[in-house]
Multicomponent Na+:H+ antiporter subunit D (Nonomuraea thailandensis), 540 residues
Amino acid sequence: MTGPVLAHSVLVDGLRESALVDGPLESLVCVPVLLPLLAAGVKLAIGGRLRQLQSVISLVTLGISLAVSVVLMIAADAHGPLVTELGGWPSPIGICLVADRLSTLVLVVSSAVTFCVMVYSVVNAYDEQEHDAPMAVFHPAFLVMVAGVADAFLSGDLFNLFVAFELLLSGSYVLLTFGGTESRIRAGATYTLMALASSMLFLIALAITYGATGTLSMAQLAERFATLPEQVKVLVELTLLLAFAIKAAIFPMSAWLPDSYPTAPAPATAVFAGLLTKVGVYSIIRLEALLFPGGPVSTLLMWVALATMLAGVLGAVAQTDMKRMLSFTLVSHIGYMVFGVALSTVAGLAGAVFYVVHHITVQTSLFLVTGMVERRTGTTSVTRLGGLMKASPLIAVLFFIPAMNLSGIPPMSGFLGKLMLVQAGLAVGGWLPVTLVAAGLVTSLLTLYAVAKTWGKAFWRAPRPDRVGRVVESEEHTGEDPTVTTTTLPVALPLSVAALVALGLSFTVLAGPLAALARRAAVELMAREPYITAVLGRQP
């Protein structure tokens, strides 16, 4: 651990002594948003004629975005928020992008995850699996979605945040319906309806906010909300929370997720599970910490967190399909993050930030491994699987490690994140926070049961003799229970997933520096002044 900490200190000291922080570094804030959009336009112009070039452009673009994100994170940690004003219009008149500790931390992790997923997509060779799928659209849609995610993390303006949501929605819808199968179109319709409902609520909240304050700049709203009547503040807060809760799949607005995500291609499902719900959670963190600190809605958020944990994990226990089981665990573990936000303390926010970072990598890894299982066997139903530990021990290990991490087995990052939240809840005290702590422990145990049951049936038990063979037709078309085939996978495919699993494990090795960074981000969020000064204290 000493080596990475020393390297980080050297980089921070170098940036502190550099005059570049107030110039070129701030101009880099827009790169994670603009570069993927530019690359998507180039790829659309290329079309499907040069598929290898499509892959190269995607990987180079995401690699550059990752490098820039790391630089921004180090600079923001050393100097405070970095601000870029779009179009040359000063804040709060114009729209700005703000890179602070929270936004750059999640941006780095999301950039690393999307890079690994793109490697998986390239190796997986969709052009060989789905001949009728418009591959010339897959890569641009992926980059548009990545740009929307980055824009959401960096946005310093509520309207620009709305634009970011619509940007990632347009890209994610294309990915969700990729291939044009009946199940994907049906899932895409459900996903779009929920997204549109969320967007309408968001627009209503923006209209109320602008009418009451005359601005949509988050920094300026942080000052002006203090002068508004309590009823207006609560109305705006609840409307925004409801819009973000739908996007984050918080109970009871989570029923759409298990029916939508499992139908998409494995790379798309992995990114959806790892990132898109976290954009909603991130928005809630930013909303509660910057605009409504210590508001009266905290108690409601605790009840919502409790319901989300239990409803999601009980749904996971009941599933017999790997994708649906993971979709329900995704819902349940969103409850941990909401719990940390609801505590309205530095320790609670730090735990929530740490858990967001952990969960992005773990959930993405699990869905990618499930995609490999489906490609190898033709199914993700645990009632039809078996013997994969012997047939493919590497896939079994790649599923087992993040599954145990998700369950919170010591000393993995999942355990450390839960421990931070438990300690924060007990420090606050009171029967409701303590009840949430107990619910979190129960959820962790039931998660362990769900993933252990899945791993045991799919990987450990011997395959049934009547299930070994080739899948002739799917159950959806014949009504029968077909047998399972096994096919070989490209060698580089599990290696790309192994890199993502290793990233998740690195959060255990680097838990000390990561927890310290999460705490500094929480302190900055609760203080609010560094963010407000960075945005509004600049000279036009």
Q: What stands out?
A: DSSP finds 24 helices and two strands in the chain. The CA atoms of residues 162 and 203 lie 8 Å apart. The first strand starts at residue 82 and ends at 85.
